[in-house]
Design a protein that fits this description.
binds flavin mononucleotide; 225 residues; alpha+beta; seven-stranded antiparallel sheet; three-stranded antiparallel sheet; Pnp Oxidase, Chain A; 18% helix
């Protein structure tokens, strides 16, 4: 049996805080699709380096370029304003060990604050953009703003697409055993998945990837019924 969930069925769930289903579609919690987490680095207008802990994204491209699509960048954030003003940013992937550091960049988020210092991160110069890179990141993508669209037309978030100009990847992650897919690699956000028995939203959880096997091993397995 399948639970059919329409766009109108937000009332079946309880918000964890008032206005939660205005800031997020209730589908976010119904579907609870894991999202890779990263830090967007930019500079504030006063020159201070800025960080934004971010989920909701996808990555892809073709011969014409490789693109980072970030569906929800809040208009009220420094990051949105910095990206619109400067036209560039970096995407920095850090492991789950840095989760407390990432959260500290949210709590120490004033106009005057150096958010790298707040999170105990180190500024590293980028090769192709003026935005700073996070030295502790195992992979950084340097990006130029390619597209800015308010998908919901509510003036809350924009989908920002960055054209990736350059990547810096920690050598020990991509030589021999690939370390990107495990506890030291990409971290994922499981955002308050809904329990439809009670209507409650669970806590947010962190996850990493478990590699199941190669394409060749899997394509030769018996069909699932
Ligand atoms: C796990 C997690 C994921 C987040 N993902 C996003 C996101 O995808 N988009 C967004 O605009 N804010 C997101 N935030 C909130 C921002 O990190 C937060 O508003 C931050 O303070 C913005 O920083 P800034 O004002 O320096 O840009 C997330 C927060 C957490 C804890």
């Amino acid at each position: 049996m399948k639970r059919e969930i329409g766009m109108e069925s937000a009332e079946l769930l309880y918000e964890n805080w008032p206005g939660q289903f205005d800031s997020f579609s209730h589908m976010e919690f119904a579907c609870a699709i894991p999202q890779v987490l990263f830090l967007i680095s930019t500079r504030k207008e006063n020159g201070q380096p800025n960080l934004c802990f971010h989920s909701w994204s996808s990555f892809g491209g073709d011969a014409g370029g490789y693109f980072a699509v970030m569906q929800n960048v809040a208009h009220l954030s420094h990051t949105y304003q910095n990206i619109v003003r400067e036209g560039e940013f970096c995407i920095n992937f850090v492991s789950a060990d840095y989760y407390p550091n990432c959260i500290a960049t949210i709590t120490g988020n004033s106009n005057e604050s150096n958010e790298f210092e707040e999170g105990h991160f180190t500024v590293e110069p980028a090769r192709t953009v003026k935005a700073p890179r996070v030295k502790e990141s195992f992979m950084t993508l340097e990006c130029q703003l390619a597209c800015n669209v308010d998908l919901s037309r509510k003036g809350i978030n924009s989908m920002i697409i960055g054209r990736v100009l350059h990547a810096a990847i920690e050598q020990k992650y991509i030589e021999g055993v690939d370390k990107r897919y495990g506890k030291q690699g990409f971290m994922f956000n499981i955002h308050e998945p809904a329990d439809y028995a009670t209507g409650q939203l669970d806590d947010t959880h962190l996850a990493s990837l478990e590699v199941l096997g190669s394409y060749v091993e899997y394509k030769n397995k018996p069909f699932a019924e």
